[in-house]
Design a protein that fits this description.
alpha/beta, 2 domains, Rossmann fold, 263 residues, elongated, 6 strands, 41% helix, 6-stranded mixed β-sheet, single chain
């Protein structure tokens, strides 16, 4: 997986007018980068938060996250980039952020937040690279400049390296799933988080009613026919499947903003 270096990102921010920080609306705090925001602040660049994949989260929860980030001083836009929801509002916010024209925007985000899909939605046609999973063919390989409108240009970059705000998201977004040396530990933690929010998520996705993450991995491996030569379940492959299914939203999960109640 190719990621943009922090020195290169600093250089791009110097030339940009606005920074778009694309977050996964299911887990905004876990996909947020304090380091990116600090870099933008030191260069005097306004940061616009884009809560992408808002179609995977109840509306009231998305609205709560918008209020949360606006309370921190960020202009915030909820988007479902694949269906182009929120495009008009995002363009309005970009134009409101600075007075000069044309506006140069640099878009940044962790892998699998949908950064390139947001750019595609802004442009109205697909030519920025996209891919289903981190590290697979189609990921943005180099810095690219796109004209969105006559007065807006967007710099697309490879994903930024997760900077450690959340160890689990750092691990599963920071490298391809197939390259994880031990996928069991992150898959177990991921299942704990998902089941803590939505007890029926695993049953809905796999038809497995158990709540113990290790048993879930065993049963999933057996259901799919993944076994070692001695017949034992190949739970490493089940663990990779759980991580992939989290990325593609087959496993339903989202965080609620601080001071709100899950429901």
């Amino acid at each position: 997986m190719r990621l943009v270096s922090w020195s290169k990102l600093a250089e791009l921010m110097r030339d940009a007018d606005v920074v778009l920080e694309v977050l996964d609306a299911r887990v905004p705090l876990e996909t947020r980068s304090i380091r990116v925001e600090g870099l933008a602040r030191r260069r005097g660049k306004p940061v616009v938060i884009v809560l992408n994949k808002c179609d995977l989260v109840p509306r009231r929860v998305v609205e709560g996250w918008v209020r949360f980030f606006e309370g921190l001083g960020f202009k915030t836009v909820a988007m479902a980039a694949r269906s182009r929801r929120g495009v008009r509002r995002l363009k309005e916010v970009i134009r409101e952020s600075v007075s000069k024209k044309p506006i140069i925007v640099v878009a940044v985000g962790l892998p699998k937040t949908g950064k390139s899909t947001v750019i595609n939605a802004l442009k109205g046609r697909s030519s920025a690279s996209t891919s289903p999973y981190p590290g697979t063919a189609g990921y943005t390989k180099s810095v690219q400049l796109y004209r969105v409108d006559d007065d807006i240009k967007v710099i697309d970059t490879p994903g930024i390296a997760p900077s450690g705000e959340d160890w689990l998201e750092t691990l599963i977004r920071g490298r391809p799933v197939d390259s994880l040396y031990n996928p069991i530990r992150p898959a177990v933690e991921l299942l704990k988080r998902i089941l803590g929010h939505n007890p029926k998520a695993v049953e809905d996705a796999y038809g497995i009613t158990d709540r113990d993450p290790y048993i879930i991995l065993e049963r999933l491996a057996l259901k799919r026919g993944w076994r070692y030569k001695d017949g034992e379940p190949l739970i490493e492959e089940a663990a990779r499947t759980v991580i992939r299914d989290y990325h593609n939203a087959k496993l339903r999960f989202y965080r609620t903003p601080p001071s709100s109640t899950p429901g």
